Sequence to fold (311 residues):
Amino acid sequence: MNKISIIGAGMTGATAAHWLAEREFADIVLVDVVEGMPQGKALDLLEAMPIIGKDAEIVGSNDYAATQGSDIVIITAGIARKPGMSRDDLLKTNAGIVGSAATETLKYSPDAIFIVLTNPLDTMAYLTMKMTGLPRERVIGQAGILDSARMRAFVALETGVSVENINCYVLGGHGDEMVPLTRQSNIAGVPLRDYIPAEKLNAIVARTRKGGGEIVNLLKTGSAYYAPAAACAQMAEAILKDKNLIVPCAAYMNGEYGLNDMYFGVPVMLGRSGLKKIIEYKLDEDEKIMFDKSAAAVKETHEALKNVVTF
Ligand code: TXD
Fold:
């Protein structure tokens, strides 16, 4: 059985464990700093397995030694911004948490592929790669599957067509400047722009950009976790089954799309070795402008990181 360790057993981490265990993709280890909590959630989930007839082993721990020999490490550990906390303070705190989660797990799982979720996502993925010294193939950030799924869900609501027929591609940084590509998005091969009137499509794009905030506003405390965790599980499946699945993920840019030394959301082929390939779309002028704007926002956070961490 494959083994997946999830660092941070909060809402996203525990829900990712749920999606993964339900599909019997791997044995799972949940690690958190809070004593008893990862053990309790793991035991509860383990006790659900006989009911759904799945044989995944699930354990919780406060000790990284439990992660030994993982095929995949998913990092969701971090704190949310508290009142009065500056963005730089949050960046510094989460960089400390993610940096140690990455280096500690690497000690026990030298061959693992890392999937990063903690926000600010692109920058935490960048930090994980720099701190571990791993090649970009083995450190991938999750954002684009979620952002694209939100757009697909909104298109399905608007048209009544099955989500399975709806293909949307949201690239760029994981923030308000994300880049929903309406030209490439389609319903069963019919361009979205031909299917949905412009003003409705614009509204869908706007709602997608603010998708995370919409849920935060409704929940009042905490942020989305079902869809982010499902996105994580899809990435893990693609890797473990060597599917060569092309999905939008945050990847380290080495000249692709004219970008260098940064993480950015682009279509990535995922397989057993992690990132196998980055697919480059031919962008038109308008798309290029959106890409550059989004890249500038991500770069800014990368630069802020360099002021609070040395690697
Ligand atoms: O698409 C995406 N990338 C995202 C990102 C979608 C959803 C959530 N996204 C981000 O993931 C979110 O902005 C946060 O930065 C993380 C985790 O979100 P979640 O909603 O799961 O937060 P929780 O419930 O607060 O869980 C975080 C857990 C919590 O249990 C802490 O005790 C734990 O992280 N934590 C740690 N675990 C291990 N080690 C250390 N040092 C540690 N510090 C805190």
Summary: The pocket of TXD is lined by residues 7-13, 31-34, 76-80, 97, 101, 117-119, 121, 142-143, 146, 174, 222-225, 228 (CB under 6 Å). The chain has two domains: 2-141, 144-308. The mean pLDDT is 96. The CA atoms of residues 253 and 259 lie 6 Å apart.
